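--- STAGE predict ---
source: upstream dedup step, 1 unique chain passed
mode: sequence only
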Amino acid sequence: MGCLWGGNGMQGCCANTKLNLMTYDDLRLLIDYNYWARDRVLDAVATITPEQFICPMGNSFSSVRDTVAHICAAECIWITRLKGEKPQRLQKPDRLADVDAARKEWAELEGEMREQLAKLGPEAVERTIEYQDLRGNNQSDVLWQTLQHMVNHGTYHRGQITTMLRQLDASPPKSMDLIAFYRERGRKA
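--- STAGE serialize ---
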């Protein structure tokens, strides 16, 4: 089957095509989605017991707490890189004693992300961010792709949290689908 734009697969239709970049408003909307989904997952996590919050479950990050902590730590790393600084390492998950601590940390990260995005401004959408990954390898990525990655990473792990909540016989979050965000936002506009 050919691709939607004609040709066969990536080589036939997209190999020599420059990706359409996101606009600054697109990035801000994506960041809005990220924190809207964060609030939904944390509302659901708030319904479990402290014991369930830290209960090892054999996931890629052992517990609900550890998964939330990983999402926050990853966002912190990306924010640090956007500032032109070098993150040292991932933070330890036990820094988040409970859901309130997670909410506080994630809200602070949101403020930093929005502040950094505002400082970078619309002209930075296509800017290449150069940094060293945590292994010391030099990397460079375009800002809009970096932020898409960060949000996608969080989406992946929010899905894991949803599964863990179900395994704990807790209610999952309200839909965190991007289309649900757009629909809700459209009703408010």
